[in-house]
Amino acid sequence: MAGKLLTAGKSLGPIRRAFAPWNDPAAKPFIQFQNVTKTFGDFTAVDDLSLNIYEREFFALLGPSGCGKTTLMRMIAGFEEPTSGHVMLDGQDLVGVPPYRRPTNMMFQSYALFPHMNVWDNIAFGLKQDGMPKPDIATRVDEMLALVKLEKFAKRKPHQLSGGQKQRVALARSLAKKPKVLLLDEPLGALDKKLREETQFELIDLQVKLGMTFVIVTHDQEEAMTVADRIAVMDQGKIVQIATPAEIYEQPNSRYVADFIGDINLLEGHISSTEGGVTTLDCDGTGAKVQVSQDGGAKLGDHAWFAVRPEKVAISLSPPADPSVNAVTGEVWDIAYLGDVSIYHVRLATGATVKATITNTTRLVERPITWDDKVWLTWSRDGGVVLTR
Amino acid sequence: MRRGASWFNVTSITLGFAFLYLPIVLLVVYSFNASKLVTVWGGFSTKWYVSLLSNQGLLDAAWVTIRVALLSATLATVLGTLAAIALVRFGRFPGGTLFSGMVYAPLVMPEVITGLAMLLLFVAIGFARGFWTLTLAHITFSMCFVAVVVQSRLITFDRSLEEAALDLGCPPFRTFFTITLPLILPAVVAGWMLAFTLSLDDLVISSFTTGPGATTLPMKIYSQVRLGVTPEINAICSILIAIVATGVIIASAVTKRREVDRQRAERLAIQGV
Ligand SMILES: Nc1ncnc2c1ncn2[C@@H]1O[C@H](COP(=O)(O)OP(=O)(O)O)[C@@H](O)[C@H]1O
Ligand SMILES: [Mg+2]
Fold first, then answer.
1. To 5 degrees, how large is the angle CA B207–CA B210–CA B216?
2. N or C: which end of chain A has fewer CB within 10 A?
């Protein structure tokens, strides 16, 4: 059903890899939030938030439902005005500019296709508002229909389309005016998993090809990781961390981010040394020592957590060479066999559980490690991070 | 559970329909009565329909009624729609509940009181009573019915459609006419029909607010019936019934047809054709 938006020719690798304006101090931000607060009555939806988004960036706002992502996006589109602070686009203050005069377009979560117009008229709607000459409108609409592979559906009404087709029409409609910024509010939420994954890659292709700035709102971390150049993780109206997907995953700055993105093991303790670029954490309860080649701003005596992803934990029946550092021992409590990987839940003496993910590289006949085995869990110095909040 | 018609169901339906329609059927049948006596059947005839055409009083009244109904229904629809939009869209404000309650008040207000209040107002401001006072009064009482009908449609209206239009560069005023109005049109039309019928058959408020030269059909019929029911009255009532019934049948046929079309289209979409 779902044809490719673009028949991918060249790999986008070189373009995507070289793109990092946020590291360039000379780069001018395209969208700027400056100390923006938005309150509804006595409820604060966005709380003193500052944020820079760069031209041609694919930027994701990620967070649980109700954390203020949509509100943030609606302030770019002009449907909400900040209670205080400024939203700037390309150096221009957007406060007071009504939505119909902003060079941004939005793809709505519900698609918001006009039910009394056919696909063609839906896509042409925005162009007609600008008073574009009729032949130009026709050319542009046909171009958009081709882009989303819906040429044959031009005369259909929205209720005669499947979910995936509606999504494409909504996308085509919001792209037709060639906006400076395309805002996507949970654009794939209504699609089934397979179609969603396909469409994610099509969105990336499209964004690079059109050279537009895309801002996407999502509560799906995989979606954000797949499409975005950078992700802002939000919590209760504040941004907790802004970074590339890899940084967010490997270098979360807080337990909140570590826990929100993927799976994580947390060991609580105190910093006992920060010498020689190595941070040492003494775990509460087990007394195990964790050494990490990262300082992360942790100071001697700080209450902190060691965070390590399950796939970076090795599991073994025999103790490591030095069992006093970066190793814990426990009993296999549970095994989740997921086909490609198995997740071992190991119960430590303190009662805490540590997870280790093992890739099933051979066909599983008999588990070398099984329930109630006494095992050792180990990791390298670069395997995890120390978090102080 | 057993489906189909049990004797109990059949009886209750028959009784119910008889209760509703027997008087009307009788009225229509007697409008074709050749005899001048309303209660004695004297054979089939259409002469009362013919004689209607020369009854200038009834024709004048019919003409007034139709003019008042068309004008008041149209203005009530405009005002009622605006009121509905204001009530649904304005969001919550102090006294909002009281305000929307006040819009509904005329629905339950005894007509005699509405009529009397209007009469007092027109007298107080020295407004000569006639066609215009009648129209104003009809607008007043039918507006709230339109507001209720349109309001119930607007509550389920997806606001993001309007936002999408704004987002695509369409200013608010144009958005109303290109997006909102076409989508709530069925409710607006239903409101108009309701206002039209209400105006067509109003007797009480009309009697209070009318003046010389502006007698409506219901008033005319009522005053003639006091002198005795003539088959002519039956004839004009039958015509009214025919008009209303035709309207209702057309309206429901159109709705039904739409529904069928929509369902077929949705099936097509699901099959992914
Ligand atoms: N117009 C509004 N009036 C009152 N509260 C609102 C309004 N819009 C959003 N909110 C509240 O602000 C919070 C953030 O909403 P939203 O930005 O939609 O969250 P998200 O998109 O992250 O799920 C929610 O708790 C929501 O109830
Ligand atoms: Mg949202």
1. 70
2. N
